[in-house]
Amino acid sequence: MANYQKLSINQLSFTYQHDRVPVLNDLTVSVPLDHIIGIIGNHHAGKTTLCRVLAGIVPHIIAGNLVGSCQLGDQSPVQDWPAYNQQTGFVLQDPHSQLSGLADTVADEIAFDLLNHGVEETAIQQRVAAVAAQLQLTAQLQQSPDSLSGGQLQRLAIATAIVTRPTVLILDDPTSEMDPQGRSDFFNWLKTVTHTTIVIVSNEIDELCEIADELWVLEKGHLVSHGTPLQVMNHLSPKWQVATPTIYQLASLMNWPLATKPTLFPVNFNQLRRCVNVNHSN
Amino acid sequence: MKAKNINDQDSRFSTWKIHLTVATTTLIPAAVGINYIAKALAEGLKLPLWLGSLGTFLASMLAGPTAGAISGFINNVIYGLTLSPVSTVYAITSIGIGIAVGILFHRGWFQNAKRVFVSAIIIALVSTIISTPLNVIFWGGQTGVAWGDAIFATMIGNHINIWLASFTDEFVLDLLDKFAVAYLAFLIYRQLPQRMINYFKDNQ
Amino acid sequence: MDIRHNRLQKVARLHWYNVVDPVTKLLLALFLTLLSFQLTDLYFEAGLVLISLILLLLSRLSVATLHAVSFSLFLIATMILIQGLFNSQNAHPLVTILSITFYQEGVLYALTMGARILIIIFSIGFFMNTTTVSENATYLESVGMPYNQVYLLMSVCYILPQIQQNLKKIQFAEKARGINPQKTLIQKLRSLLPIMIPLIIKTFDQSINRSITLQLRGFNSPERTIAAPMYHYFKTKLSHYFLVLMIIILIGCKLWQIIKNFL
Amino acid sequence: MSTIQISNLHYQYPTSDFQLAIDQLSIADSLVAIVGQNGAGKSTLFKLLTGLVQPQKGAVKINQRNLATLTPEERLRTIGIVFQDPSSQLFNPTVEKEVAWSLSQLESDAELVQATVKKALASVGLTKLKDQNPFDLSLPEKKLLTIATVLAINPQIYLFDEPMMSLDWPSQRLVTDLMQYLAQTGHQVIAITHDMDWAAATFSKMVALAAGNVVFEGTPTNFFSCPEPVKKAGLLPPRIMTIAQEVFNDHHVYLTPQDYAEKYPAHQ
C-alpha cells in the first residue's frame, strides 16, 4: 500500500476540537514527490487546515480529530512528527508571527532554526548567506527584522523555512504583501527549487498555472477537483466560484483550443504558444 | 568550546524548572506587553488608575494561575529594570494578583457582571495585603499617587497607626483600579474568538 | 566575512563595563541595595549614593534613568513633607517655614529612605545602561539557563515595539471611525475598549502563531547550539561567589537583628 | 460628484527621509485607482486623503473646502475609509452592532439605524452572520464587514486601501460590483492598489506614484500605452498585454481579455 515516491492522502477528515463540523471531509489524492501542488478555493474551503495537516500542526499542536492517513514518501506527519518536522519548511499567512521574536538582525533570524538543530557556526554562516542571496535579502542581513517592508518580511519568512533544506515546503499564501514585481520574482524563484515537494496556497491563479504540476480545488472541506492545471481549469464547475487564468479566459473567448486536445483551452504561456503556432500563422 | 562547563551547570537550573508549554511561553510576553500598553494608555488619558495588570488578568484567565503569576512577575521585573527600578519589588504583588485571578476564574467568579464585582474586591484585598508592607519598607507607607497619599497624610497627621494608614491608602486605590481592570478583562474575554480560548486551554 | 556578529566593530567600541558580566552587575545592584537597608547612618547612605552615582556616570546616562530619577525625586520630596510634618517619632523641630514646623526625626527618616531609593535607581540604571538585551540573553543561555526561560524573559523586549506598531495602526483606524474624546471616568474607560479589543486579539493571535512556528522551527530541540557569550568577561565566577557571600552576610545580619529584637 | 483638489502638497515623516510632494492633482472622476510600488507613497497619500493627518505644506480640498477644517461629523459624512487590515477596527460583540456603532455616531433615530444596518449588511451578503462575533469571521468576511460599516454612513467619497487583498474570488467580484454601483449612484470611489489587472479592468482614471511624486494621471489606456511611467512606477502592465507582447509580438494596449477579443479583428 505504502508508496515511497508519493505524497498520498487517504480518506482524510479533520475536525477541530470543540468544533462539530469537519473542516476537511474525506480527502483522497496522491501525487509524485518533488512536484509543485497549488491549492485553490475560497474561504472556509479548508486550505489552511490542509496545510496544517501536511505540516503536522494538526493534530500535534492544535488539537482535533484526524481520521484517515497522510503519507509523504516513507514518512507521515501524523505518526512520526518530530522526525518529519525536521524535513518540513512551513510559511504562515502572517509573516510577522513567523519570526522567532528574539533576533536583533535578519541574519540571526535566519540562523535560528540552524542553531536549534545544532548546526556548526561556519556552516550556519554559509547557509544564511546563500539563502539570503536567493531571496534578495543580502543587503538587509544586518538590519532589524522590524525595519523590513511587508514584502521583505514575507521573503524573510520564506528564507527561515528553506534554510534547513527541507524536502517538503508548505507555503500558505506567501505573496499577499508583495508588489507585482516582487511576486513575479518569487514565482520565478519557486520554479528553480528542486528536490522539494512544494505545496502552495495562493490566489494568484495565473502564476499557479505557470508553475504548478498539480492543482487541488477545495470547496467547503471537500476536494472537488484535482489534476494538472490544464485539466482542472477546463473542468471547473461554476458552483465552486474559482477564478481562471487570463490565458484561459483569452483562449476560450477567441476559441483557440489546444491542437492536440481540441476540447481543452490552454492555461499557461507554453500551451498558448503551442496552440497558436498550430492554429495561426502570425 | 565551552560546552563542557555549560553542561555542568545545567543541573543547577533544572531544580527550579517550571513546566511551561510553548503556547504559554509566547502568551506571557504578550500579556506583559498588554500590561505595559494599558498602563501607558491610562496615563495618556490621565486616569487616576494604573490598569497595568490587564494583561496579567487575561493571561490567568486564558492559561491559568501559573501563567498569570509569571506574567505579573516578569512584568514588574522588566518594568523595574527599564523604567522604575523600585517597582521591581512589587513583583510579589503581581504574582499574588495572577494567582488570585486564576483561581477565581477557574471557580467561575468571572462568569457574569455581578460575580466580577465580588472578584474585584477579593483581588484588591490580596493586592493590598501584599503591597502594604512593601509601601512601608520602601516609601514610608506612601503609594506615590497624590490623592491616595493625601488620605495617608491626613491619617498620619491624626496619629493613626502607619500600617492602618498605609493599608487604607493602598486599598482605596487598589479597589478602584481592580474594579476597572476586572470589568475590562471581563468584557474583553467575552469577545475573544472561541478558537483562541480553546488553543490556550488545550495547550496548558 | 562574519555576517552574524560584527565582532570587529564591537571590539572597537569596547568599554570597561563590557568586561563585567550582566549577572555580576545585577548582584552588585542587589548588594548595594541590601547594604543601604543595613546602614542607618545618613553619611554612609550618602556615601553609597555617591558610589552608585559614580558607577552610573562612568557608564552612559539614558533618558529612562533620568525619568526614573525625576519621578523619584518628586516622591522623595512628598515623603520629606509628610514624614517631616507627621512622623509619629517627631520630637525635635528642625525648621519652621511660615509657621509650619518640620521635625528632625521625620526628615531624617525620609532622607534615609530617599537615599535607598536613589541607590536602587542608580545601580539598576548602571546595569541597564551598560548591557543590551541580546548580551543578557546570550549570557544567560551560556551559563546554562534553559532556552525557553531565556526566551520568556527576553522576548518581552522584542514584542513591545511590535505591539506599539499595531497600537498605532489601530488608533488610526478607530480615529477614522470617529471616536470622540470622552469626559467622565466611565466614558474614558469605555473608550479604551475599541483600542484594547483589536489590539489584544491581534497580539494573542500573533502569540498563537508564534508558538506554532517556534515548535516547527525546533525551539525545544535538545541539540540547540548554546550561544557563546558576546564578550570575554573578567573572573565571572569569583565575582559571583564574592557578591553572593556578601549578600548572604548582609541578610544574615538583618535576620540576626530581627531575632535579637525578639530575644 | 465631488472634486478633490491637491495643491503644493508636501509631507515628510519625522523619522525617515521619505517625502511625498504633489504640485497639482485634481480628481473629479468617479472611479480612481492610485497605483505604485511598495514605498512609492501610496499609503502616505491615503493617510492625507483621510483628513486625519495634516500635510506640512499645501492642502487637500474637497469641493473647495480644506479637509483640515471639517468637523468630525462632516468628515465622516464626506469620506468613508476602508482599511487594508480589517482586524484593526473591529471591537463590537456582534456583526450587526459593529455596523450600527458606526452609524449611531451620526444618527440617533434607532429605527433608521436598524433599517440602514440591515440594508448595508445585505449589500455585502453578511445578513446571515449578523449575530456572530466579528472575530469569528473569516478574513474576507471581516473585510466585507468593514465595508458595511462605511456603507451604512453613506459618505460622498469612498477611500479603499488595497481592497482586493485578502479577498477570495467571489468577494473580489462582489466588492468590484459594489464599487461600480457606488460610482453610478453619484459617489466617488478611490482605491489604492497594486493589482494592475484589476485596476485596468475597473477604473476610469489612474494616478501613478513613484518615489513620492505623481508620474502619471489619466485613463488606463493612456497609462499603459506609454511604457515610460509604467516602468518608472515599477509596475507591470495588465497580464493580457504581456501575453499579447510575448506570444503575438503585439504591442497594442489591452485592458482585459474581452478588450482583446473586441479589438482583435481590427488589429489583424
UniProtKB/TrEMBL annotation, chain A:
<keyword id="KW-0067">ATP-binding</keyword>
<keyword id="KW-1278">Translocase</keyword>
<protein>
    <submittedName>
        <fullName>Energy-coupling factor transporter ATP-binding protein</fullName>
    </submittedName>
</protein>
<dbReference type="GO" id="GO:0016887">
    <property type="term" value="F:ATP hydrolysis activity"/>
</dbReference>
<dbReference type="InterPro" id="IPR017871">
    <property type="entry name" value="ABC_transporter-like_CS"/>
</dbReference>
<dbReference type="GO" id="GO:0005524">
    <property type="term" value="F:ATP binding"/>
</dbReference>
<dbReference type="GO" id="GO:0042626">
    <property type="term" value="F:ATPase-coupled transmembrane transporter activity"/>
</dbReference>
<dbReference type="GO" id="GO:0043190">
    <property type="term" value="C:ATP-binding cassette (ABC) transporter complex"/>
</dbReference>
<dbReference type="InterPro" id="IPR003439">
    <property type="entry name" value="ABC_transporter-like_ATP-bd"/>
</dbReference>
<dbReference type="InterPro" id="IPR027417">
    <property type="entry name" value="P-loop_NTPase"/>
</dbReference>
<dbReference type="InterPro" id="IPR050095">
    <property type="entry name" value="ECF_ABC_transporter_ATP-bd"/>
</dbReference>
<comment type="similarity">
    <text>Belongs to the ABC transporter superfamily.</text>
</comment>
UniProtKB/TrEMBL annotation, chain B:
<keyword id="KW-1133">Transmembrane helix</keyword>
<feature type="transmembrane region" description="Helical">
    <location>
        <begin position="49"/>
        <end position="74"/>
    </location>
</feature>
<feature type="transmembrane region" description="Helical">
    <location>
        <begin position="117"/>
        <end position="139"/>
    </location>
</feature>
<feature type="transmembrane region" description="Helical">
    <location>
        <begin position="171"/>
        <end position="189"/>
    </location>
</feature>
<feature type="transmembrane region" description="Helical">
    <location>
        <begin position="86"/>
        <end position="105"/>
    </location>
</feature>
<keyword id="KW-0472">Membrane</keyword>
<protein>
    <submittedName>
        <fullName>Energy-coupling factor transporter substrate-binding protein</fullName>
    </submittedName>
</protein>
<keyword id="KW-0812">Transmembrane</keyword>
<feature type="transmembrane region" description="Helical">
    <location>
        <begin position="18"/>
        <end position="37"/>
    </location>
</feature>
TrEMBL record, chain C:
<feature type="transmembrane region" description="Helical">
    <location>
        <begin position="42"/>
        <end position="59"/>
    </location>
</feature>
<feature type="transmembrane region" description="Helical">
    <location>
        <begin position="240"/>
        <end position="259"/>
    </location>
</feature>
<dbReference type="InterPro" id="IPR003339">
    <property type="entry name" value="ABC/ECF_trnsptr_transmembrane"/>
</dbReference>
<dbReference type="InterPro" id="IPR051611">
    <property type="entry name" value="ECF_transporter_component"/>
</dbReference>
<keyword id="KW-1003">Cell membrane</keyword>
<feature type="transmembrane region" description="Helical">
    <location>
        <begin position="66"/>
        <end position="86"/>
    </location>
</feature>
<dbReference type="Pfam" id="PF02361">
    <property type="entry name" value="CbiQ"/>
</dbReference>
<keyword id="KW-0472">Membrane</keyword>
<feature type="transmembrane region" description="Helical">
    <location>
        <begin position="16"/>
        <end position="36"/>
    </location>
</feature>
<dbReference type="GO" id="GO:0005886">
    <property type="term" value="C:plasma membrane"/>
</dbReference>
<feature type="transmembrane region" description="Helical">
    <location>
        <begin position="106"/>
        <end position="127"/>
    </location>
</feature>
<protein>
    <submittedName>
        <fullName>Energy-coupling factor transporter transmembrane protein</fullName>
    </submittedName>
</protein>
TrEMBL record, chain D:
<keyword id="KW-0813">Transport</keyword>
<dbReference type="Pfam" id="PF00005">
    <property type="entry name" value="ABC_tran"/>
</dbReference>
<dbReference type="InterPro" id="IPR003593">
    <property type="entry name" value="AAA+_ATPase"/>
</dbReference>
<keyword id="KW-0472">Membrane</keyword>
<keyword id="KW-0067">ATP-binding</keyword>
<dbReference type="GO" id="GO:0005524">
    <property type="term" value="F:ATP binding"/>
</dbReference>
<keyword id="KW-1278">Translocase</keyword>
<dbReference type="GO" id="GO:0043190">
    <property type="term" value="C:ATP-binding cassette (ABC) transporter complex"/>
</dbReference>
<keyword id="KW-1003">Cell membrane</keyword>
<comment type="similarity">
    <text>Belongs to the ABC transporter superfamily.</text>
</comment>
<dbReference type="GO" id="GO:0016887">
    <property type="term" value="F:ATP hydrolysis activity"/>
</dbReference>
<dbReference type="InterPro" id="IPR015856">
    <property type="entry name" value="ABC_transpr_CbiO/EcfA_su"/>
</dbReference>
